[in-house]
Known about the structure:
mainly alpha
Amino acid sequence: MDLRRLRTGEWVAAASGMVLLLALFLPWYTVDPGQSTTAWESFAILDIVLALIAVWAVALLLVTAAQPVPAVPVALAALVAIAGFVATVLVLIRVLDLPGGAAGREWALWLGLAGSLGVLVGGLLATRDERLSPPGRHTDITGRPAPPPPEIEAIPAPRREGPA
């Protein structure tokens, strides 16, 4: 595992995935005065979908650090961006449309929305980050430090012999 391969997008997605996963265990809705419910208590399937998306966002960080080639992390980053969009839409629907029996919104609902937005932004950042090596510091295709490329040797043009 090489943490030098990780870019901003992977860190944002993983941190946001952890925030989203944590938010599922905190109070999302007020049922009665003084009583609140978590996302696990309020939803039937939506909580499982959000938890899987959060775990997937954390997995992006681990896969990127462990893979020797960039193809798998880039593909996973694109899928995490799509999953982050789905999570954001699902949580936004639950912000606007309270589930049955809920009287109000709690603070963790907004934390869940921020976490899902962070997964989306982190996935997009990881997908579009194709930066080149900084000047004077060469890296290979995986982001690891590498020796500078060899100098290009100039070869003289061939001489043309015979009648012109």
